[in-house]
């Protein structure tokens, strides 16, 4: 009985071994791949993106851009050189004027009267000096009297020069041609000595002011040309580096630079802000 069971077990084991040795039908040569393989293969192929479906990343910038301020090369705040009442203001806000034009005029009636007084004193001092000289020739006046009379005449003459200089302060003259940027006083006002009267600028001479990283000092030099781009329209102007500050700002490690505009500057006004564009380069010289 046991012998028969053993033979049956051996026969079943042989059948199972033969079945395992045969290749599975699903991988026979010539049969298509299973559906799972068909779904995986296409995912490995590159996909083509339609134009406009996914924008490509923008290329890295090839330029160095720094914010720049347009400033006048000539600007000034004209102050009063005397105390008094303003008689007339000849210009208004934004008005143009030539060099030497009278911008503000003071009421100088008192100064004119003082000038007339010292002129009369000079006339009397000169007559006295001449009389002393005649008396000295006749032996009726000594050398000391003549010297004192001459000194009095010279003192009166110096007073005239002083009053004339004070009268010159009655008119504020334009040091150069330009425009009025701000009026700080009005006609008929009384002002003190040194009080600001008006701001003026010369828009014909413009400069670009900006700060660059301290590392740029290795290659930025006076005479270096660059462009300044203004506004949304992207209009550019030619500029050349004119000055570099003598020291670097310790807090933010920046260097102040000034540039001189070249050619036409139509459309530019002091106070406008643009972008200074330099070609990209290494910070190494």
Q: What's the architecture of the domain at 63-74 and 202-279 in CATH terms?
A: Beta Barrel
H-E string: HHEEEEEHHEEEEEEEEE
| Name of the top-level CATH class of the domain at 63-74 and 202-279 | Mainly Beta
Distance from N terminus to C terminus (CA atoms, Å) equals 103 Å
Helix percentage range: 25-40%
Question: Mean pLDDT across all residues, rounded?
Answer: 80
- Ranges where pLDDT stays below 50 over 5 or more residues in a row are 24-31, 33-62
Shape: elongated
* Main pleated sheet: 6 strands, antiparallel, barrel
Number of strands: 14
Notable traits:
alpha+beta, single chain, Helix Hairpins, elongated, 4 helices, 285 residues, 4-stranded antiparallel beta sheet, 6-stranded antiparallel beta barrel
Please explain how this structure is put together:
It is a single chain. The protein is an alpha+beta fold. Among the domains are: 63-74 and 202-279, Elongation Factor Tu (Ef-tu), domain 3, CATH 2.40.30.170; 108-169, Helix Hairpins (Orthogonal Bundle). 28% of the residues lie in helices and 30% in strands. The protein is built from four helices and 14 strands. It has helices at 2-21, 35-40, 109-137, 143-168; strands at residues 63-72, 75-79, 84-89, 96-97, 102-106, 171-173, 178-183, 190-191, 196-201, 206-213, 225-230, 235-244, 254-262, 273-279. A six-stranded antiparallel barrel has the order 1-10-13-12-11-14. Helix 3 packs antiparallel against helix 4. The protein is elongated and about 175 Å long. Mean pLDDT is 80; it is low at 24-31 and 33-62.
């Amino acid at each position: 009985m046991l012998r028969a069971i053993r033979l049956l077990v051996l026969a079943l084991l042989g059948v199972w071994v033969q079945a395992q040795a045969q290749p599975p039908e699903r991988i026979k040569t010539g049969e298509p791949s299973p559906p799972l393989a068909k779904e995986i293969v296409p995912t490995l192929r590159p996909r083509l993106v339609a134009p406009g479906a996914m924008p490509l990343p923008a290329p890295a910038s090839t330029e160095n851009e720094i914010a720049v301020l347009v400033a006048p090369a000539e600007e000034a705040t004209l102050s009063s050189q005397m105390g008094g009442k303003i008689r007339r203001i000849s210009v208004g806000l934004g008005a143009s004027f030539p060099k030497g034009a009278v911008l503000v005029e003071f009421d100088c009636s008192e100064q004119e009267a003082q000038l007339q007084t010292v002129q009369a004193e000079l006339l009397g001092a000169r007559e006295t000096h001449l009389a002393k000289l005649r008396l000295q020739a006749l032996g009726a006046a000594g050398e000391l009297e003549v010297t004192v009379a001459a000194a009095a005449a010279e003192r009166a003459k110096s007073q005239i020069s002083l009053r004339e200089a004070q009268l010159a302060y009655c008119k504020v003259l334009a040091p150069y041609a330009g425009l009025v940027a701000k009026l700080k006083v009005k006609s008929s006002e009384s002002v003190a000595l040194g009080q600001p009267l008006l701001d003026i600028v010369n828009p014909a001479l413009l400069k670009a002011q900006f700060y660059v990283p301290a590392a740029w000092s290795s290659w930025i030099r006076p005479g270096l040309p660059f462009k300044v781009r203004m506004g949304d329209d992207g209009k550019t102007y030619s500029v050349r580096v004119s000055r570099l500050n003598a020291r670097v700002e310790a807090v933010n490690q920046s260097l102040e630079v000034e540039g001189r505009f070249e050619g036409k500057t139509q459309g530019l006004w002091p106070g406008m802000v643009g972008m200074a564009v330099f070609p990209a380069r290494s910070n190494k010289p």
